[in-house]
């Protein structure tokens, strides 16, 4: 075996994994607070990347302004989504709520085609270009810097949710909505706030993914990998999102490097099937207790 | 206005059509279906066949999702299994539709039961994702099992027969598809009159209580997966006989979502819902085409926008119905009917 | 008593570290009404769940007509004739009253998938026989013929409880397990329900095992009373025996104030006739 190639691929895989972790984190934040599986998270990533393209590529603003604006745009999109279509669905069956997010993703895909055209686009370069060597190992600079930025935001989020008032409110709502409400936490606000922050994490990841992989209205379909991540880690576990993201990113890249790209989906979805059969609530998820 | 529907025996109380009026309307409906192909344009006949296939498939999905309450994102994949099997049986075994379609349905049912196995341990969203995994794996098989599926190029159906009659025109397909669609819907309706339909609904409404009351969850969840996939497999087989070619892209993940959307828009858990939903969702692109033709003089690039607008409208219909008419078009139909029965009095 | 239809031997059940039932043993005499009472959290409903098979006790055995049924799945137990109602009404909201009741008979029907799809002779005959039986035996008896075609979701609470009883009867019970049959009812509804239970017992010879908080009703209609407290069986016997048992009085009042408890039980018993 070519060990150099193995390690290079591994590093690239873990770097991709860090971005997956970031999206998964956004996904889990939304799920923890509102119990909604957001099938539209990939499309939120895609729209945010188009926003970045508009600010940095078309309007030619500095990336340091364009990137936060794109993130803010993604967050607002999440927040508006929550207000307009998720909140009225409170208390409906999970099938309906899932379908509403699927409907939303279809709307966003169509809207992106209407606004930015159906063809693929390339984002302006904004990451340093010099390749990085760790000893003999070559790492593509785009992937490396993307991973570092993703990890940066991940750390900020974890610290924020651990220590801030908002984070405590979110965790309280996640563990017992009624109790949180009666303690004076505004649960609707927490819902909105979770959608905002969750979507913002996805937005950054969306820009980073598009920076190295290109962008089209159908880019959102990469979120299929994210579903595997969150099921693997456990839908309501932040730790699960981090570990699952790294593992799925690594596995996907390794499969692509050693077996070929068309085996990527097969591998991770086979993994998913085994996880569902053997450990249905993921590595770190909470088992739902059934009552009569 | 209609007053009373006094029945004096249990069989007449549990009949599907309980009043004379209903029977008359049904007769008119059947007569319309019979004469339709002779007065319609070739294109409407083509659409009618598509609608018929969609009705069968949507009814199958409704059995699983609407009646038994198990989410599936694998329905498109199941249709694919049925389509490939039917073509293979027809081309390699020389079978006619009368044999290849039921066999394709049975094989798909077996696949459906295997895919349904996780439903014993996981519910709701987890199940949705498990069925999605199944559809990804099925897609992979369609692409890579070249000797049988023909890989990315797909396979052609050379031998489209039923009882020795060549199914080479839409007219002939119509008279195969529409009766089968009626049988499919009647089957679902009959199911609801027996212990099996009741068990499905019990599993949907309160699975644990159902178990304590004597309903074997394992058996009925898998039965529902099997039956639903049987419908999907038959619909897939008909689809293959209709288009005479199947490729891996014939049944993408979007197909599963299309059928979920159809039963939501039509009304989940009702018999009428999947029919209305399948008709409506199949015809929406056509309606949009007509609208585009109207606005082209004002908006010259409307033609270019047609495809993305279709995607937006598709999503907006799902969201709109879920938010404003969660019981779908079946409920709208019911309201209209009640209104007309009581007219001229206010409801 | 020679004719014990149901016998529990040393049932222990715990969730994680929480002990819900410890070493509970008692018998249910055939053709009698047995009541399980005890303060909230005593483990009464858990005991019911163990009998229906939803919970698997860590220790102990359950005998039904002399046979150990501890290993049977819940649907099998229902088929044997262990029929139950639920504390929090568990009707199927998407079905009519009639269909809810018919569902109870599920395990005694034989229609297979193919017969059901085509509703051919056998399936139809079976359904009609079922309808006839449900109408004449259950719906008439419980006086719910006026609501048979209504959706259960639209019914008043008391009627929902009655439909639950009807559904349990459709199972064809050997033992009827009723979990708080009169909880939350007004006085008139309570009296109706008590009358139905007594009629079932006296006219149909039905064995009843019920969990109930309403002491008056328990004392009035039960042949045997079993008292649980913190998962332990602390007394059993006739209503009279149990009423005077110092352990029971302590469990209810948390002290040894015997005369006070006796008065309370006495008053309540008289209050609901």
Question: What does the model show?
Answer:
The complex is a heterotrimer of chains A (about 290), B (about 350) and C (about 270). Helix content of chain A is about 70%, strand content about 0%. Chain A has about 290 residues and is mostly helical. Chain A has one domain (about 5-280): ABC transporter involved in vitamin B12 uptake, BtuC, CATH 1.10.3470. A two-stranded antiparallel ribbon of chain A has the order 1-2. Chain A is globular and about 60 Å long. Chain B is mainly alpha-helical and about 350 residues long. Chain B has a domain at about 40-250. Chain B is about 75% helix and about 0% strand. The longest helix of chain B is centred in the middle third of the chain and has 27 residues, at about 215-245. The termini of chain B are close together. With about 270 residues, chain C is an alpha/beta fold. The longest helix of chain C is centred in the middle third of the chain and has 22 residues, at about 120-140.
Given the helix and strand composition of chain A, which structural class is it? mainly alpha
CATH superfamily of the largest domain in chain C: P-loop containing nucleotide triphosphate hydrolases
Largest sheet of chain A: 2 strands, antiparallel
Percent of residues in beta strands of chain A: under 5%
- How confident is the prediction overall: mean pLDDT of chain A? 88
Sequence of strands across the biggest β-sheet of chain C: 6-7-8-3-9-10
Shape of chain C: globular
CATH class of chain A: Mainly Alpha
In the residues of chain C, how many domains can be counted? 2
Largest interface, with Cβ-Cβ < 8 Å?
A-B, 44 and 46 residues
CATH architecture of the largest domain in chain C: 3-Layer(aba) Sandwich
Number of strands of chain A: 2
Q: What is the CATH topology classification name of chain A?
A: ABC transporter involved in vitamin B12 uptake, BtuC
Stretches of chain A where pLDDT falls below 50 for ≥5 residues?
Answer: none
Helicity level of chain C: 40-55%
Catalogue the unreliable spans of chain C. 267-273
The gross shape of chain A turns out to be: globular
């Amino acid at each position: 075996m070519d060990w150099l190639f193995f390690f290079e691929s591994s590093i690239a895989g873990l770097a991709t994994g860090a971005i997956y972790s970031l999206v998964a984190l956004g996904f889990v934040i939304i799920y923890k607070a509102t119990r909604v599986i957001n099938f539209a998270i990939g499309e939120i990533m895609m729209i945010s990347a188009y926003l970045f393209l508009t600010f940095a590529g078309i309007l030619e603003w500095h990336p340091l302004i364009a990137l936060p604006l794109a993130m803010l745009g993604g967050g607002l999109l999440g927040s508006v989504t929550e207000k307009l279509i998720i909140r009225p669905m409170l208390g409906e069956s999970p099938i309906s709520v899932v379908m509403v997010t699927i409907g939303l993703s279809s709307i966003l895909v169509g809207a992106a085609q209407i606004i930015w055209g159906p063809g693929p686009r390339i984002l302006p370069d904004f990451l340093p270009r010099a390749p990085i060597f760790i000893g003999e190992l070559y790492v593509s600079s785009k992937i490396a810097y993307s991973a570092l930025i993703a990890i940066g935001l991940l750390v900020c989020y974890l610290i924020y949710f651990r220590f801030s008032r908002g984070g405590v409110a979110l965790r309280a709502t996640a563990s017992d909505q009624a109790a949180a409400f009666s303690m004076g936490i505004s649960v609707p606000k927490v819902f909105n706030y979770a959608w905002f922050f969750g979507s913002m994490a996805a937005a950054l990841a969306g820009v980073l993914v598009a920076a190295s992989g290109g962008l089209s209205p159908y880019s959102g379909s990469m979120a299929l990998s994210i579903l595997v991540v969150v099921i693997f880690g456990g839908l309501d576990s932040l730790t699960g999102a981090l570990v699952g993201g790294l593992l799925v990113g690594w596995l996907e890249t390794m499969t692509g490097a050693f077996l070929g790209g068309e085996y990527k989906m097969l591998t991770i979805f086979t993994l998913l099937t085994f996880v569902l059969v053997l450990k249905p609530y993921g590595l770190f998820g909470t088992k739902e207790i059934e009552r009569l | 206005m209609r007053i009373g529907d006094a029945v004096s025996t249990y069989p007449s109380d549990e009949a599907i059509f309980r009043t004379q009026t209903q029977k008359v309307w049904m007769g008119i409906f059947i007569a319309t279906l019979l004469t339709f192909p002779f007065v319609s344009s070739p294109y409407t006949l083509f659409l009618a066949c598509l609608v018929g296939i969609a009705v069968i498939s949507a009814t199958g999905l409704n059995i699983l999702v609407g009646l038994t309450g198990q989410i599936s994102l694998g329905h498109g994949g199941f249709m694919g299994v049925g389509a490939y099997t039917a073509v293979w049986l027809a081309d390699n075994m020389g079978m006619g539709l009368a044999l290849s379609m039921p066999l394709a349905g049975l094989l798909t049912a077996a696949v459906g039961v295997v895919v349904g196995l996780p439903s014993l341990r996981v519910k709701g969203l987890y199940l949705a994702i498990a069925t999605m995994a199944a559809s990804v794996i099925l897609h992979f098989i369609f692409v890579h099992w070249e000797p049988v599926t023909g890989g990315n190029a797909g396979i052609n159906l050379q031998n489209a027969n039923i009882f020795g009659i060549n199914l080479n025109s839409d007219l002939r397909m119509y008279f195969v598809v529409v009766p089968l669609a009626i049988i499919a819907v009647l089957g679902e309706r009959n199911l609801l009159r027996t212990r099996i339909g009741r068990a499905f609904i019990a599993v949907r409404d309160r699975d644990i209580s159902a178990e304590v009351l004597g309903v074997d969850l394992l058996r009925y969840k898998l039965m529902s997966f099997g039956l639903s996939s049987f419908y999907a497999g038959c619909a897939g087989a008909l689809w293959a006989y209709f288009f005479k070619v199947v490729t891996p892209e014939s049944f993408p993940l979007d197909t599963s979502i299309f059928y979920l959307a159809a039963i939501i828009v039509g009304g989940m858990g009702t018999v009428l819902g999947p029919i209305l939903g399948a008709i409506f969702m199949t015809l929406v692109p056509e309606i949009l085409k007509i609208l585009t033709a109207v606005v082209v003089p004002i908006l010259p690039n409307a033609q270019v926008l047609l495809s993305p607008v279709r995607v937006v409208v598709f999503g907006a219909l799902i969201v709109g119905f879920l938010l404003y008419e969660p019981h779908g078009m079946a409920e709208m139909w019911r309201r209209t009917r009640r209104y007309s029965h009581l007219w001229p009095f206010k409801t | 008593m020679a004719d014990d239809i149901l016998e529990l031997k040393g049932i222990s059940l715990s969730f994680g570290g929480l002990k819900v039932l410890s070493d509970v043993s008692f018998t249910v005499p055939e053709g009698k009404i047995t009541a399980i009472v005890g303060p909230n959290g005593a483990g009464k409903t858990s005991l019911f769940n163990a009998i229906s098979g939803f919970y698997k006790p860590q220790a102990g055995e359950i005998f039904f007509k002399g046979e150990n049924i501890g290993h049977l799945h819940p649907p099998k137990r229902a088929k044997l004739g262990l029929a139950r109602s639920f504390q929090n009404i568990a009707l199927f909201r998407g079905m009519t009253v009639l269909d809810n009741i018919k569902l109870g008979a599920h395990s005694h029907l034989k229609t297979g998938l193919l017969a059901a799809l085509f509703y051919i002779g056998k399936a139809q005959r079976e359904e009609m026989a079922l309808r006839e039986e449900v109408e004449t035996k259950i719906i008439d008896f419980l006086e719910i013929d006026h609501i048979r075609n209504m959706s259960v979701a639209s019914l008043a609470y008391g009627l929902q409880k009655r439909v639950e009883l009807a559904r349990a009867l459709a199972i064809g019970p050997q033992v009827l397990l009723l979990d708080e049959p009169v909880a939350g009812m007004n006085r008139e509804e309570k009296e109706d329900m008590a009358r139905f239970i007594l009629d079932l017992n006296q006219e149909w010879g039905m064995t009843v095992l019920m969990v109930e908080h309403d002491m008056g009703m328990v004392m009035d209609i039960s042949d045997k009373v079993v008292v649980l407290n913190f998962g332990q069986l602390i007394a059993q016997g006739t209503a009279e025996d149990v009423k005077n048992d110092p352990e029971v009085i302590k469990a209810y009042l948390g002290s040894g104030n015997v005369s006070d408890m006796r008065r309370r039980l006495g008053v309540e018993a008289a209050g609901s006739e």
